[in-house]
Specification:
By secondary structure, this protein is α+β, with helices and mostly antiparallel strands. The chain folds into three domains: 10-93, no CATH class; 107-294, Distorted Sandwich (Acetylcholine Binding Protein, Chain: A), CATH 2.70.170; 297-421, Up-down Bundle (Methane Monooxygenase Hydroxylase, Chain G, domain 1). It is 35% helix and 29% strand. The strands form three sheets. Strands 4, 5, 6, 8, 9, 11 and 12 form a seven-stranded mixed sheet that branches. A four-stranded antiparallel sheet has the order 7-10-14-13, with no helix packed on it. A three-stranded antiparallel sheet has the order 1-3-2, with no helix packed on it. Strand 2 (44-50) and strand 3 (56-62) form a beta hairpin. Helix 6 (325-347) runs antiparallel to helix 7 (358-385) and helix 7 (358-385) runs antiparallel to helix 8 (389-421).
Length: 422
């Protein structure tokens, strides 16, 4: 190395490994040279030397040939142009992986639905809540990899952070078309095979709205529908296909009171959409139908059986004297008020539907029976006041069998109509 002379500026000891710096502030900090003015752009000629104590000395001396400045500046600009060109070329050679794969045919997306449980059914708002495992499979050649280079036979992105922050690629974003409220993803995992086969698994907890047929209530059977669609892509770009191999349910069914699980099915569904400018579009969907029957024991125990007992007790008025009008009217009106209370209770359970149900028909038949009893009470009392007691007694005797026969017959006809014909 060169030995320092008297004209060199000793700036102290530095490590043996050094790199050239071209910065006015750093040079001023290192050597504090008075010959370098603020704002100057002088390049430095640097040399290393070792003093008698074994310390490594950096000697900096301003060059007087400004041609080096021009050459150095042009060199830096040329390096930047070369780097930008190389980066643009690499970007053009790398395929865009954030969009769907290029294909002349719609991309098949296989959708599997495994039902874990139905946790709630809200008849009034026609909604239900469920927990399920959603499996989505597709093929993307852009994600293929060499397992020998990566050292793994399968790439796995587990959890929300790895999937959202680490994974860099496209996936079909499935959403609930009939969702009511917000859904919650409790867990997710993405698996990538060497040939580009992709599998996305997600634990879903959601509330959806599904129209219910309550004609047979409380002996009804409901088909709760869940509809999945791919956000932003139409039928010409992707097609959703049911994946029966990853669809199913637990053997013990669901653990929801009043409901008994019957069956689950997954089927394709296409919807035609019409837009305001006149054009139409076809969207691919997957429909999941959960068939469940209601256990009527609760409603029978709470409403039907008590009302039957109350109605039969109300017929006791036909064994009472016609002169005791007050007592007979008390029994009849007590029954009417009880039926009205039951109607209010049922209205809080069922939605505001515009059709008759089996339960509403039963309540109205019971109300009509009570109202008819009030009319008979008044007529028999009127006959007694006219002195036609025998005629009034005859009417009571006929009503003892006529009221029960008519009431049970009408309810039987109603049950046959709703359960067999409706």
């Amino acid at each position: 190395m060169n030995q320092p002379d008297a004209n060199e500026q000793n700036i102290g000891s530095i490590p043996d490994t050094w790199f050239t710096l071209y910065s006015e502030d750093i040079v001023n900090t290192l050597i504090g040279s008075k010959r370098l003015r603020a704002g100057s752009t002088w390049p430095l000629s640097l040399s290393l030397s070792i003093d008698r104590f074994g310390n490594t000395i950096l000697t900096a001396e301003p060059t007087k040939n400004r041609v080096r400045i021009l050459i150095f500046t042009v060199f830096l600009m040329l390096c930047q142009v070369i780097a930008a060109t190389a980066s643009a070329q690499a970007s053009n050679d790398t395929p865009f992986i954030l969009g769907p794969p290029n294909s002349s045919e719609p991309i098949p997306i296989h959708v599997g639905f495994f039902l874990s449980d139905v946790t709630d059914v809200d008849e009034e708002r026609e909604m239900f809540k469920f927990e399920a495992v959603l499996t989505v499979s597709w093929h993307d050649e852009r994600q293929a990899f060499d397992p020998e280079k990566l050292g793994v036979m399968e790439q796995v992105y587990q959890g929300a952070f790895q999937f959202n922050e680490v994974y860099n690629g496209w996936w079909p974003q499935l959403v609930l078309a009939n969702e009511s409220g917000s859904s919650e993803r409790q867990g997710e995992i993405l698996r990538i095979k060497p040939d580009g086969s992709m599998t996305y698994i997600q634990v879903l907890d959601a509330v959806v709205k599904s129209e219910m047929n309550l004609h047979h209530f409380p002996f009804d059977r409901q088909s709760f529908e869940i509809i999945f669609k791919c956000l932003g892509l139409d039928r010409s770009e992707i097609v959703l296909i049911p994946d029966l191999a990853n669809s199913g349910h637990r053997e013990q069914g669901v653990g929801l009171a009043q409901w008994v699980f019957q069956d689950l099915s997954v089927s394709p569904l296409d919807h035609n959409l019409r837009f305001l400018d006149g054009h139409t579009g076809l969207r691919s969907h997957v429909a999941v139908n959960i068939d469940m029957t209601r256990n009527p024991s609760y409603m029978l125990r709470l409403v039907v059986v008590p009302l039957f007992i109350l109605i039969m007790l109300s017929w006791s008025i036909f064994w009472m004297d016609g002169e005791s009008l007050g007592d007979r009217m008390d029994i009849s009106f007590l029954g009417i008020l009880t039926i009205v209370a039951y109607q209010i209770m049922i209205s809080e359970i069922l939605p505001r539907i515009d059709y008759w149900t089996l339960m509403s028909t039963f309540l109205y038949l019971s109300l009509m029976s009570m109202a008819a009893g009030v009319v008979i009470n008044l007529y028999v009392s009127h006959l007694d006041r006219l002195g036609r007691v025998t005629e009034g007694d005859t009417i009571d005797q006929r009503c003892r069998w006529l009221f029960p026969a008519t009431y049970f017959s009408l309810n039987l006809v109603s049950a046959i109509y709703f359960l067999l014909l409706k």
